[in-house]
Design goal:
Chain lengths: 305, 305
């Protein structure tokens, strides 16, 4: 077999991360550049192309050694490569696949960044070898990504896997960033957890403080953890009623709490889930911030391997 | 192109329905036999094989004119053809695909009956030409089926699309047939609707009576319709956060209420759903009780057309 490489690009609002991978999912090299969001983000694609071209020249790769370039973008992406919107970058209805293919003569594939992270974990991380995978990312917001039969799910408007905006409390009156009420993100993002902590009287704390207090047996923190687990367990049980995945991966900053987080999730997942779906396993993400570049590269390879 | 036919079989607890289809989804002939559930349902597969063989002989079909046999079964089915459990038939962990292939020398494919009905609507019914489809069947229970990219979703334990057992009310204390509390089925099946009607003081009525009263403007019935729409709209909005389908099909006995049912669903769907998923359309099923035989036939053809 000819040894070829694939580029994975994770486009963020402040940094663009790059990785070069072999066909088995080994990271050979990685680097990053700053994101220039000036002029509606119109310089970003050219900067990506230039960065890739310069590395190709430096290593001395020939075109037949390059499978292509995969890219993860912070916003909904349609299967054909159109970014519906990426507010952090200033993009709207932009076909970045065609744009990058105009700069580079390689195959380009694009998807949402949270979806791409799920694909990365399925290729080379915690869910390696699993076919049907759901990943939930607990950070400033709550993102999600779904891999079914080894393929990334885009959805008809590019919104598949947007678990953070699943309603978990129809009676909520506090409004989410998305405009509706009762979204999972309002309770289980880092900011959501801080809000829950305030409500039980924990004062000014971070999500990490709360989990540390849970581990120390603090009563108020234990209350927060129960609410946190109830909301997330409820949401993931409902995901099971739809796609019945074999594994759930939990990532993002809040997941640094470790296995205790999984225990609270599983407690409520098992309460709310349809019995045949109790076989699903829960695990922490293992690729950290690099999940995006792994999954982006896999996007290109996923179609032919 | 050689003109071939496919058999679709819908196995129910009292009747087994059969259909012969051409490659474009036209039903050429259909018939039914009674289900013999004696001896743990062990005579069922042979009865199906004999019925198909006798029709093949009667029409005078040659083996090269037959694509295969698809079958819908009332219970969770794994992708390889193992029926995990079909209580109505007495089956448990039974590979009915291999069993039927032992009797007949044709390709056999098997899936859950509600899933298969969704595939039927996607092939030849209300969702013809759509790729990402969710069907919800509102009958004695609530079933569901999901087609993504034109392919039926099985799930890792055969439980994909079990929308009826999504929890829509975490505070419910009444227990569902499945053993947990707050399932969609407890509110939006025909029996669920009768229960809701009792709770608002409508007395002894059927689901049809309630919808007739809704159309006549009866105040208590209008209350029931709001709760009904709220539960179903909530559930389908949460389905959207997972797979973001382009169309929802509503079938089953309760769907005979017509478009007014869709209006109540859409009212609450739009309240709870993530904004990019508002583009989804809602429609009534069009194949009725025959959706099962259509979808079963399509199971066989779906892999190569």
């Amino acid at each position: 077999m000819k040894q070829t490489v694939t580029f994975g690009v994770d486009v963020g609002g402040t940094q663009i991360k790059f990785g070069i991978f072999d066909q088995e999912g080994h990271l050979l090299n990685d680097w990053a550049i700053d994101t220039n969001t000036a002029d509606g983000g119109s310089h970003i694609m050219q900067a990506i192309a230039l960065s890739i071209e310069s590395v190709i020249a430096k290593i001395g790769l020939t075109p037949d050694q390059i499978e292509g370039v995969g890219m993860g973008v912070p916003g909904p992406v349609l299967e054909g490569g159109v970014v519906v919107e990426a507010a952090n970058l200033g993009w709207k209805n932009r076909n970045v696949k065609e744009e990058l293919e105009g700069y580079l003569s390689y195959k380009v594939r694009v998807a949402n960044d949270a979806n791409v992270a799920a694909l990365g974990e399925q290729w080379a991380g915690s869910a390696k070898g699993k076919k049907d995978v759901v990943m939930v990312t607990l950070g400033t917001g709550v993102g999600g990504g779904i891999v079914l039969g080894g393929q990334l799910l885009y959805g008809s408007s590019g919104a598949a896997g947007e678990i953070g905006h699943m309603c978990v409390n129809p009676d909520e009156t506090v409004v989410c960033n998305c405009g509706k009420c009762g979204c999972l993100e309002q309770y289980t993002s880092a900011t959501g957890m801080v809000r829950l902590a305030k409500e039980v009287g924990m004062g000014d704390v971070t999500a990490k403080d709360v989990w540390d207090a849970v581990k120390a047996g603090d009563e108020k923190a234990l209350q927060v953890a129960e609410i946190y687990g109830q909301k997330l367990g409820f949401a993931l049980a409902n995901v099971a009623s739809v796609i019945n995945p074999e594994i759930y991966i939990v990532g993002g900053g809040v997941s640094k709490a470790g296995n205790i987080l999984l225990e609270y999730i599983e407690k409520y997942y098992n309460k709310y889930v349809f019995a045949p779906c109790k076989k699903a396993t829960f695990t922490l993400a293992s690729l950290g911030n690099q999940g995006g570049i792994y999954g982006a590269a896999r996007l290109v390879l996923g179609e032919e391997h």
